Amino acid sequence: MDFPPIRTLAAADLPACSDLAESRSWPREPRKWTLLHDVGRVFGVTAPDGDGLAAAAVLMRFGSVASISMVLVAARYERRGLGRAITAHALSAAGDRVVWLHASKFGLPLYESMGFVADGGCQGHLGTFADDGGPGARPATDFEEIVSLDETAHGVNRRPLLERLG
């Protein structure tokens, strides 16, 4: 089966990203897709049958590093090379940056076949922040301090992301 070319998605395509995520039993997170679109690049492949997206992936670039995440392929198009193709496209768009990739256990064999090495992973959490009155609880008022702490923690300046979150 021939697929349409991989393209950079526009804001109007983001509901289809949530539809694709939900079809794979991922949370429906329109705010997250909007955030990722605003500070990164969201790639997609239109489904040949015209029903939404066949695949999607996100690339975030910060200085000398990049992150690939949200790689999804519609179930009806899996095992046809779309996951590899859209991941390779995002990797190419990362240029010469050091790239890390966020993978589920289902995608790990594909990414390892592409040269990625598992490093122990990360944990995602959903919810809302609440002030529990603990000793470190205080309003985030010093943005420059937050940027500095984040850069120390991540090894790269992620100011555009932090500005968008603020």
What does this structure look like?
By secondary structure, the chain is of the alpha+beta class. It has helices at residues 14-23, 30-39, 82-93, 108-113, 143-154, 159-165; strands spanning 7-8, 41-46, 53-62, 65-73, 98-101. It has a five-stranded mixed sheet, sandwiched between helices. Helix 1 (14-23) crosses helix 2. The longest helix has 12 residues, at 82-93.
Q: Which keywords apply here?
A:
alpha+beta
Oligomeric description of these chains: single chain
The major β-sheet equals: 5 strands, mixed
Helix and strand succession? EHHEEEHEHHH
Uncertain segments are: none
Strand content: 15-25%
**Would you tell me the overall average pLDDT?**
89
Tell me how many strands there are: 5
Strand and helix map with partners:
Blueprint lengths: L6 E2 L5 H10 L6 H10 L1 E6 L6 E10 L2 E9 L8 H12 L4 E4 L6 H6 L29 H12 L4 H7 L1
Parallel strand pairs: 4-5
Antiparallel strand pairs: 1-2, 2-3, 3-4
